[in-house]
Structures are given as structure tokens and as C-alpha cells.
TrEMBL record:
Gene3D superfamilies: Vaccinia Virus protein VP39. The lineage of its organism: Eukaryota, Viridiplantae, Streptophyta, Embryophyta, Tracheophyta. Keywords: Methyltransferase, Transferase. It comes from Pyrus ussuriensis x Pyrus communis. Pfam families: Methyltransf_7. This is Jasmonate O-methyltransferase-like. One of its GO terms (biological process) is methylation. One of its GO terms (molecular function) is methyltransferase activity.
Amino acid sequence: MSMPCQLCHISNSFSLMPIKILSVVKPIIDEAVQKMLCSNIAPIGSMGIADLGCSPGPNTLLLISIIIDAIHATSCSSSSTEFRVFLNDLFSNDFNTIFMSLPAFYNQLKEEKGDGFGSFFISAVPGSFYGRLFPAKSLHFVHSSSSLHWLSQVPPGLDCQAAGKALNKGKIYISKTSPQCVLEAYSLQFHKDFLLFLKSRAEEIVGGGRMVLSLMGRSSSDPSTQESCYQWELLAHALMSMVSEVNT
Ligand SMILES: C[S@@+](CC[C@H](N)C(=O)[O-])C[C@H]1O[C@@H](n2cnc3c(N)ncnc32)[C@H](O)[C@@H]1O
């Protein structure tokens, strides 16, 4: 089946958006890493860094480069510090693609920074960030970009029929036509998920550690404005037309 061009357009803008976001967030990551290294939270012999919702995409390694640059830019890091970098995503993530790109990444780092770019031990931690992923007090810096808008599940009730009618028929998120109860269901699900995320990280991060999270926001308090829903409306529309193609 051919992909509707609307879907190609959305998929392109979805994959470019995280790169833009990462470039905006870079100074914040720099500051967080440097402040952490320069504070006396503990003599750090080994620093735990986690990227939550890393995806198999190119941004995963870009983030590691940003962190290495931030570490190099401060006089507070010791050359003997070892860095444990954990890449997390769902069990279904294609971690092999990341691993296959590591040799080229290491070579590039060596070329750009010489042998002294530090000891980095990169590994994968599959599982949902809505729950514990790491041992207690094992992380110093946690990053997550463009991932926390993924809820742990469709809010209860939205995927079943009420009075013979699906509550959010033809939509994959809040839209202009969604009734108020759909908005409330999404809001409640986000609150539950985000609370669980914060509670889990609170156990895993050492006192004085840092966390940088970036996720989509909106300037209006109304979640059904064009600004908030446009891409999800388009995506829902494209999916519905693909389904109708299959059914005809
Ligand atoms: C839009 S991608 C962002 C990828 C990358 N962080 C970036 O900035 O390019 C969102 C990622 O979050 C992952 N994700 C969604 N829910 C998750 C969860 N509960 N636990 C871990 N990863 C999750 C998805 O599998 C996906 O790879």
C-alpha cells in the first residue's frame, strides 16, 4: 500500500522536529552537566547518564556528543571519571541499529577529540520509563527529549464503545470534535504517568543529580486549539484513509 503523501509530510516533520528541539535544549544540557560536575555532590568516580526514550534514530548519538562536549568544556571533570551511558526505550525499540552505529561513532570521537575523550561505557536498558529501570541512586544525569508525550496506554474508556458509540471516533488524540470527557481522560492519564515517571526517577537519581526533560507544549490552555492538535488531526486523517483503502 502506498503511503499517503500527507503521512510522508508528517513523518518528515516528526523526524526533523527532535533535532531542532535538541539544538534548542543544548545550552540547558551544557549548564546542567557542568553545574552538576562542579557541585560537590560526591567525588564522582563513575557517572551514570541515562537517555530515556532514545529511539534508534541519529539523535541518540548526537545527545551523547553534546554531553561529552559539555563535560570537556568544564574544568571540574576529572580525567579518571568513567561514564556509564544507558540508552533506554521500549522493549520493541531497534537497539541493534544503535549498536551497529557505535564503531563509527567511537572512531569519529577519537578523530575529533583524540584518545582523551574519556571512558564511556554505552549500554541499552529496555523497558518503560513509567516505572523503575535502574538501581537506586545510580544516576547523575537523566535526559529525555520528545518522549514524555507518549502515554503508557490509551486512557481507559476511550477504546471502548459507550452507548454503541466510540467516544473519540476517528481520532487518535484530543481534537476539536472531542467531547470534554475525552480531554479529561487524557489529562488524567498524563498526570498518572508523569507522577510515576517522577517517583521512579526520584529513587534512581543521586541527591544533587540533574534531569533535563523536553516535551511538546502549547501557548494556549485549550488543548483542542489548532496549534495543539494540527499534526494529530492530520495523522488521524491519513490513518483513516489508509484503513478505508484496505476496506475497499
Ligand atoms: C519521538 S521519539 C524521540 C526520540 C529521541 N529522544 C529524539 O529526541 O529524537 C519518542 C521515543 O520514546 C519512546 N517511548 C515512548 N514511550 C516510552 C516509554 N514508556 N518508555 C521508554 N520509551 C518510550 C518511543 O519508543 C520513541 O522511540
